[in-house]
Every structure is written in structure tokens, then in C-alpha cells.
């Protein structure tokens, strides 16, 4: 028993001693008070420590959280037998040894049976209350433990998901710059068009990469723009077909999944004008399919390991539906699930503390998104300026992506630091405070 339990037993001993001394003792003397205190101490500590020992023993051997049914039966049996023995022992010491109002033969006769059973019933009620209290405390501990474990699991999954999403940003930028470098030598005019479109696409990447899911419609529109970039480079060597059902447009997929899968098709297959690579994007039975005719490259470049594995892992963290891969001698197909609803990851966080945490986390995400956009701007634009001045100094085309992307960065900054949600909340709070002060003034 813990220190708190001993303190409670001491207060119970003192309270019962005073109660019986004041209301049931005829001769009020110090000697009688000591006897009453001794008897109260005996009952309180023997019954208290006995039941505490039984409860602690059962908690170790048969915890409530693991063996609830068996523990209930054992608790009932143990408190009946235990209190029967303890009460008879305390009554025997009290009546025979301390007060000396009965002999051993009289105590075990019918004369004291009713009195003993009355004391046993009181002890059973108190003991049942204490065991029920212990059960509730154990239930609360188990519930708290489960909540903490679920939060840890959720945080771990969220951290893993964030790690997977953060692969997309540098991965896309790296591959896009590689394509641009190739185009500069092959076709400078097409490189200019590619650069102008890349800034628009990269903006989408920055906006969507922090989301768990996006609509099929948004992903298809982005994929079409990305396909235009690929057509800029490969011209008639690649061909794209989109046959997605209109009713699936309002459903959800993992963001940038199409871009990664389209990129895989280009990376793992060769494409020529005589043997074009045909890529089909269509919906089929709650899945979004990306299929291409198989024209595998003989010599593959070393892969970064990002792409299909990334999509599979992100879906695994969001749903039980699987990503399917089909491969034959003629074609390669990937099926990603189309989800009807967004997962509600914040349903557990309903109290004020978690609400504040969610607002803070959202604000941090917004700041991270802006600074990522700003860093990429000051990384890519100087690179484009150098390429422009080295290849065609008479034709300064870098102004277009610099101004277009710069306007986007300025708009992003104005949204975060100017008229964003935080600014709205501040204004609403100021208006409410003014109204509250005005009402208080009227009341005075």
C-alpha cells in the first residue's frame, strides 16, 4: 500500500474512534478513548491492509485490462472469503481479548452470529466499493495508455508520411532540371517553352505535396500539363490518352501519383518516332490505371528508388486498398485506388489543447511551404539566368519565368503574412474585443 493509503487509514481510524467514543461509549474517560482508538485502529488497518494485499496480488497476477472476466470472479470470491476471515478475527480480538465481554465458546455460538454477519456485510460493501474504485482507476490508466499509444502511432505514421512526401519536391526538381539541361543542347527554343511551363508545374508541386489526398480532377489537369512538357521534349516519340470517367473526378487520389508514374514510363522505356511510347490513363473499377506498351531500355540508369515505391507506401498509410501492378510481354500497368472520402486524421483531437496544436501545426506547414517556395525560386532562377547568358545572350528569355514565378512568390508571401487566415483571425478577434469592451461600457 502506498503512503496515501496509510494516511487515509489513519484518518478513518481517528474518525471512527471519535464517532464511537462520543455516541456509543457511556463513560467518557481517557482509558475508554484509548480502547476505542485501539479497536478502530485494528479494524481499519487489518481490514484495509488485508483488502489492499488481495487487490495488489490480483492486479499483478490477473490485471483488469487483460483478464477482466476472470478477475471479476476472483475479486468476488476473494473479498467474500478474505473479509469473512478478517472480520471474524477482528471481532474475536475485540470482544474476547480487548473488551473481554465474551468467551471463545460464547463468541462462536449463535449469540454473536448475527453481529458477526452484520460486520461482514459492512466490510463487504466497503471492500466492493474499494475494488470497484480500483477497477475504474485501472480502466482510466489503460485508456490513457491506449490513447498515448494511438497518438504515438499516429505521430509515427504522420512523420513517415511527411518523409515520403518530402521526397517529391527535390525529386521533381532534379529530374526537371535534367530534362531542361538536355533540351538546351537539343532544342533551345523548346527549352524556353519548357522553362515557362516548368514554373507553373512546380507551383502545383509545392501546393499539393503537403496534402494527403487531392481530387482526381486536379491530378488529371496537372498530369495533362506535365504531359505537354514531355511532348515538348519527345515530340512524336510519345503519345498520351486520357479516358477517365467524369463521375470519378470528385473522388480522391494521392497527390503527384500520376506525375511519378508517367515519369517511370519515360525512364524505363525507350521512345522513338518509329516506335512511339503510348501511355494510357483511364479509370476502371475504383482504380486509376496508367498503362504503357512495354519497350524496356537495355541499359538502365541507376534509379533513386523514388516513384512507385513512394506511391505504394503513401497509400498504405492512408487506406487498406492496395496498389496493383500488372506486367506482360506487351504492356506494363499500374492501378492506384480511387478513394471516395478523405481520411479524418484529426477526429481524436477535439479538446482545446489539440485544437491549438492543430492551428500551430497548420501555421508551421504554411511557413514551411512559403520558405520552400522562396528557396527554390532563388535556386532555380540564377541557374536559368546562367544557362540563358551562356547559350543565347541575345535572347533574354529568363525574364519570363523570373517574373511569373516571382509574382507567385509575392502572392504566396502576401497570403501568408498579409491577408491569410491568421490576418483574418486577428481582425475578427479585434472586432470581437471592441464589441465586448463597448458592451462592458454600456453595462457600467
From TrEMBL:
Residues annotated as transmembrane: 7-24, 30-53, 73-96, 116-136, 370-390, 396-419
**InterPro entries per record:** 2TM_dom, Bact_2-comp_sensor_kinase, MFS_trans_sf, Sig_transdc_His_kin_internal
Q: Which GO terms describe its cellular component?
A: membrane
Ordered alphabetically, the record's keywords are: Kinase, Membrane, Transferase, Transmembrane, Transmembrane helix
Domain of life according to the entry? Bacteria
Give GO MF terms, alphabetically: phosphorelay sensor kinase activity
Sequence ranges assigned to domain Signal transduction histidine kinase internal region in this UniProt record:
159-237
What this protein is called in its record is: Histidine kinase
What organism is this sequence from?
Chryseobacterium luteum
